[in-house]
Amino acid sequence: MLMKNKKVNAVVSPTGSLRVLSQYEVGKLRGASAGGLHEIFRRCSLAVLNCGNETDDALQLLNEFADFDVQVLQQDRGVKLEVSNAPASAFVDGKMILGVKDHLFAVLRDILYVSDELEKHSGLDLETSEGITNFVFHILRNANSLRTRSRFDIVVCWGGHSINRTEYDYTKEVGYQIGLRQLHICTGCGAGAMKGPMKGAAIGHLKQRTHAGRYIGLSEPGIIAAESPNPMVNELIIMPDIEKRLEAFVRLGHAFVVFPGGVGTAEEILFLLGILLNPENVDLPFPLIFTGPKSSEAYFAQIDSFIAATLGDEARKFYRIIVGDPAAVAEALLEGTQKVYEFRRKHSDAYYYNWRLKISPEFQIPFEPTHENMESLQLHESMSRYELAYNMRRAFSGIVAGNIKDSGVRRVQEKGPFRINGDPAIMRQMDKLLESFAAQHRMKLAGEGYKPCYELAV
User: Residue 178 to residues 93, 101, 174: CA-CA distances in angstroms?
Assistant: First the structure.
């Protein structure tokens, strides 16, 4: 092993299900890594190896480690990975940290194996809603995240990667209360509100002697470099795109909590509310709590006001706001999971995957945030609240891309800010919300001097 200028070369062996593969399977993986998927595999691998170095500048990371590479090595005894010029933070005493190694082979599993097996050979029609939902199911099953004998115990936690210390400590306290109730955590796997609940839950699990605590991290290739998996994640899953990542959250989770965040959190809220506004989901129990410390009360008042002004009071009935009371949040989540259990038992639904939830294709089909697509989004008061929700979700998704995804950042650098059009009343509401995110340093980790990647036709 060679270490130079804080970069390391190494050959690592897998753990878990990838330890034993046939020569045929290894050959397929090696062929895929040498082909069109190699660049995605390389970028995702670099992201997980960049542990302990919090940044949301994907381009800076890629430029700093432009000479990084990872190759699949085929051997009679299985598969190994050869990494070149990797971040030294992924190693201790000359050996790759075990948690980091698990993440690295999760990338191999999801980016290469899943893509090859499902997209090319399964016969799933990814142009249909049913096909996409089945595809998400297969990815989660392949990652061994669907536990048929598990309780209703997965709490999805959403929130910003750029939050202040008071908010971060609060997420840990809520996570602690969740852990004491022997519930498990699923987040977007990055920093801030994605890491805090996992750290808190780990302490709660230890106190309750819950030795198999689950800390599930769901990411996707476009965002993982800007939100590298935090060290608490012990089940990393890389979904193919943001839409399938969002669907995986709502199919896998049993209860949901939203902490303070920025435009990415707003995107997640709009995705969820848009689905719940669908009349076919009206009777489904879906526990959803918005929460933060007392200092975040104004933040949630503004989120609530934005939802009321754009999606109407009907959308507000799907969530509760609890401020400054972590125990009450955990109690509400536990009560909510019991209602979910009773409903699915009554209807003979799967406990481990929410098949009954209706998600229309508009929420599932990947949206490419180009300048043309962003400018052509329809944001009008005459639209149904359901239609407005998924188009606002796309608008916020584009802003996330322009802020932190390398492809989006490059587009903005080349062509200038994304332009978003719509009715004046909706544009004013979006402008007010986005301005507050920028003022509160919720757009990027750096915070200071944020330059908007968007222009609203206010």
Answer: 35, 28, 6
